[in-house]
Amino acid sequence: MRHAELAIEVQPLPGAMPAFRASIQAGELRALCEQARSQKARLAALWGSDETVRGGGYALHLALAFRSGLLWLTAPLSREDPRYPGIADIYANANRMQRAAFDLVGIQAQDSPDSRKWLRHGAWPQDAFPLRKDFDIATRFPQGEDRYPFVKVEGEGVHEIPVGPVHAGTIEPGHFRFSIVGEKILRLEERLGYKHKGIEKRFETMTLEEGAKLAGRVSGDSTVAYAWAYAMAVEGATGTEPPLRSLALRGILLELERIANHLGDLGYLGNDVALSFGFFQFWRLKEILLRLNAQLFGHRYLMDVIVPGGVSRDLSRRETELLLDRLESIQGEAATLKAIYDEHAGTQDRFIMTGQVLPELAEKLGLTGLAGRASGIRHDLRVDYPIPPYQQVEPRMAEHTRGDVAARVSVRFEELFESVRLVQALATRLAPGEFRVPVADCRDGSCGLGWVEGWRGDVLIALDAAGANRIHRLHPHDPSWQNWPLLEHAVMGNIVPDFPLINKSFNLSYSGQDL
Amino acid sequence: MYQLLKQIVKTGIVTEPSPRADESLRQIEQRLGEVILTHFGRALAIRHVDAGSCNGCELEIHAMNGPHYNLERLGIKFVASPRHADLLLVTGPVSRHMESALLRTWEATPDPKLVVAIGDCGCTGGIFGENYASCGRVSNVIPVDVAVPGCPPTPTAIMQGILTAIATGKGK
């Protein structure tokens, strides 16, 4: 069939989300990307794969988000010269993804202004590529030297503050290089990849069934979103139809994850402006919810509840009532706390105009998810592509344009209340029937996409299955890839002591992007 | 300000009221306080190091500082530098990119020191195991006194782990 926005032939991909797939030539890549960009399509992910076991060379993959759905483009690259024209000048956020694709698969973006390594530090040399099929997962190279040329800022009174990888609080590891003058931040450069632990390679040693558990641990705070995206991809690739009841339960689980994370963040955002009252109040509410999760679903963070084919646990009528009852009281208390935050002059003074990302910049650099919705980027998969169970309950999108810490706080509050409404709506519409069906077998080359609006933003899983229900290539994509570069911009001109607050207002995943 | 004070008064103390719902937690808390007093005088300073986790264990470490567990009232405090720490709380399989950072953090921690590895990954390497980018369990990189299993372990289990390390570890 013809693609609605790009004039190319595409194949519809089976699965829950509207998605299409097309094979293109590397030579067409830039023209297609320019066309996609002019149609306001977003770059959802970019990754590479090794197709030599299938008689090919390597391949570059792109996922572009159009109004009509997700378009998965694949450009085959030769075994001898796996290069392709870079697209970082068209989609700025392709930069780090292109560099990661080189580090892992050895496919190279030509004419790229930045070809420094990204995910590779010292664990493997630059001529070894872990995601190539001839690379044994157990290979242990001696720890190599790790030199990384940071951009130097020069001028009178400019100095650097290197922070990390081990941070001062309970935070994931990463390195931040601040160039400052006085207390003002002139530039921040991030360096990530410290948590790279071979997740994508590990998937290739697993069956589709085993992979579900790993998917739920790509970024623990988004375990539900990942588990759902993974299940959706497997169900698409195998032609499995999850029962309606399980879809409503998945919606409930995803919203519970959103509520828990927003509660936690709202607490920490209070804490970071010295309102420890906020921390203790919100973390009290979060703990109540976590205990409820454990009681109803057997896990405080809902790990492994969503599985391919449905969910592993049902919710009884009595449990549903308990859930709704507790949520109502959490909602009431959160509303009281919102009024307190809103009226607290000291808190608002720190929130407003701090760490601003204006809509124009957000659009240009591809900000996504929660942070995007605070900067005028009107996207939310639950609203843009209303598939079951969201179709029935009509989610409302949070929309702000000021792009500062205050706006990201407002988005969290609005989404928190909206998620409570969604859980209530989904719980009262729970269709009777099964909650899990067996997963069908799949054949070599079956593909599936999972795409879910997690609390941080859209989580994508692209699956290319191998025979015997194994995984040929699986790429999990965290929205943090898109948003980390914007944090560098958000802090410019702010004072160093506001960095923790700005960072927390984005609350990005290190593990999800380091893989 | 009125609303804020009203909310505080209304909330009261939620730090596991007496009689406590979770009996095991109560015992841990009491013993923990006593043991810390014996071994470290007034307080226990913890430095957390995420050596490659999925960030699930971090969620529970944060929860431990929340009002239900309220770790600080036991004299247990998270500190910003390993040079101020008595105990390292390490999460994750140790990624090879964090190997030297973890080792240097451990070396910077003054003796006598304790190490508690948190989570299935810290105990065994977990689902990630050992590979080209992962060293696996924490004890493959630094000596570990106590390993707390769970994915992630609950705040209660982590507190139990800290107690066990103090009671039996070489820090005494």
What does this structure look like?
- Helices cover about 40% and strands about 15% of the residues of chain A.
- Chain A is an alpha+beta fold and about 525 residues long.
- In chain A, strand 14 (about 460-465) and strand 15 (about 470-475) form a beta hairpin.
- In chain A, helix 6 (about 245-270) runs antiparallel to helix 7 and helix 6 runs antiparallel to helix 13 (about 405-430).
- In chain A, about 55% of the residues are buried.
- The mean pLDDT of chain A is about 95.
- By secondary structure, chain B is α/β, with parallel strands linked by helices.
- Chain B contains six helices and five strands.
- Chain B has helices at about 1-10, 25-40, 55-65, 100-110, 120-125, 155-170; strands at about 45-50, 75-80, 85-90, 115-120, 145-150.
- In chain B, helix 5 (about 120-125) links the parallel strand 4 and strand 5.
- Chain B starts with a helix and ends with a helix.
- At the A-B interface, helix 3, helix 7 and helix 8 of A face helix 1, strand 1, helix 3 and helix 4 of B.
Question: What does this entry show, briefly?
Answer:
Chain A is an alpha+beta fold and 515 residues long. In chain A, 38% of the residues lie in helices and 17% in strands. Chain A has helices spanning 29-38, 94-105, 199-203, 208-215, 223-238, 244-271, 276-297, 317-343, 345-351, 359-365, 369-373, 381-384, 405-428, 480-490, 499-506, 511-514; strands at residues 11-12, 19-23, 42-50, 58-66, 69-77, 83-85, 108-110, 158-163, 175-181, 184-191, 306-307, 310-311, 447-453, 458-466, 470-477.
Helix content of chain A: 25-40%
- The oligomerization state is heterodimer
- Strand portion of chain B: 5-15%
Question: What structural class should be given to the helix and strand makeup of chain B?
Answer: alpha/beta
Mean pLDDT of chain B: 85
Give the tally of β-strands of chain A: 15
Order of helices and strands of chain B: HHEHEEHEHEH
Sequence stretches where pLDDT stays below 50 over 5 or more residues of chain B: 17-27
Report the end-to-end length of chain A measured between terminal Cα atoms.
35 Å
Main sheet properties of chain A:
5 strands, mixed
Secondary-structure content class of chain A: alpha+beta
